[in-house]
Amino acid sequence: MSRSQRNDNFIDKTFTIMADIILKVFPASKEEKQAFFYYRDGMSAQSEGEYAEALENYYEALQLEEDPYDRSFILYNIGLIYSSNGEYLKALEYYHQALELNPNLPQALNNIAVIYHYQGVKASEKQNIDVSKLLFNKAAEYWKQAINLAPNNYIEAQNWLRTTGRLSA
What we know:
By secondary structure, the protein is mostly helical. The chain folds into 2 domains: 78 residues, Methane Monooxygenase Hydroxylase, Chain G, domain 1 (Up-down Bundle); 65 residues. 79% of the residues lie in helices and 0% in strands. The chain is built from 9 helices and no strands. The relative contact order is 0.07.
């Protein structure tokens, strides 16, 4: 039984039914439809904190999905899981892969910046000032790109850039 058939939430069930109806009439190949089912089940598992199951579904979806735009969101979600698990290098890898396919993903740029900022804070706590500056500057680069794509988002990042003098640079 697929995850989508086990959903107990009314909204999830409604979404699943609507998605199934749309997929039946939507002119897509069998592989594209199957990729969507895996992606949807991955999102459902991820929202419930079932990261191993979500990753399995996302990897299956990647095997089937050919559209670069759709693949970028699968890769982005894989990055989210690795980041949530504290595997920042793997997360960065997947965020960058997503951006290669879809450079208009401000959320991926933001998450990359968050990882660099976090690492900068850790380096600063260890009195490693040169490394922390480097990491903070990298965070600033990515936040500027994210803000450029979504100017009304990332207000805290904009404030940080402003207060640290990195906004205009």
